Amino acid sequence: MTTEDISGAAPGADSAGVRDRAVVRVGGLRKEYGDTVALDGVSLEIGAGEAVAVMGPSGCGKSTLLNMIAGLDRPSAGSVHVHGEDLGGMSETALALFRRRRVGMIFQFFNLIDDLPAIDNVALAAQLTGTPARQARRRALELLNELGIADRQNVYPAALSGGERQRVAVARALMNRPALLLADEPTGALDSHAGEQVMDLLIDLNELGQTLLLVTHDQRLATRCAGRLVTMADGRITGERTLERSA
Ligand SMILES: Nc1ncnc2c1ncn2[C@@H]1O[C@H](COP(=O)(O)OP(=O)(O)OP(=O)(O)O)[C@@H](O)[C@H]1O
């Protein structure tokens, strides 16, 4: 896999250090759902080229934080900047464009479209930003090739293994060279072998300069893939430490 293949994010991981350019800046973030306070004053900065894992007990607000950074939901208070763009100031249309162009997301249950073969699941991400179909399919095939599943390009999600589905989802997430790759329990539905392969893939991508934010319950995923661990409880950040990546 090459830097050129994956992203426009790589230049951030330069010799000047990885945290000199923030890809994510979250300040005083609060989110209420009725009486539930899901986020209660979260501030976090992620530098270009960093891999950050967020861990904490169920219900502590991890996915809510991820969704705010992805522009999938709006905060009750506080600010989110991604790649220098202020999400709070965006119209719904601008936010939809931001989601397509700036962030790639992978989820526990893949979220692939059942009635499209692998290649079209991937290509669609670029077609939605206006890339002509032929060009989108060409890049989709390159990515599937880089991820080792080009031979599965015409297979529908139902006939793919869990690991293959997640690889298709990763290819889709990388399609528009996102500044930020967000992963919500990316190995949660995989057996240990497929999980290891997805972890290796995330490590490779980060080493090529892709900025990564992942939410997980899996200590092994966090320590293998991330350089920094953020812990949360009750909607707040309760701790932060640098990780030495384990083998
Ligand atoms: N759309 C929603 N409507 C109402 N409440 C919500 C919504 N989304 C999240 N919540 C609540 O906000 C809190 C934080 O939820 P969130 O999903 O962010 O936690 P989490 O740490 O990701 O949990 P898990 O590890 O179980 O996925 C929980 O109390 C949850 O019930």
UniProtKB/TrEMBL annotation:
Residues 24-247 form the ABC transporter domain. It comes from the Bacteria. Gene3D superfamilies: P-loop containing nucleotide triphosphate hydrolases. PANTHER family: IMPORT ATP-BINDING PROTEIN. GO terms for molecular function: ATP binding. This is ABC transporter ATP-binding protein. Keywords: ATP-binding, Nucleotide-binding, Transport. Pfam families: ABC_tran.
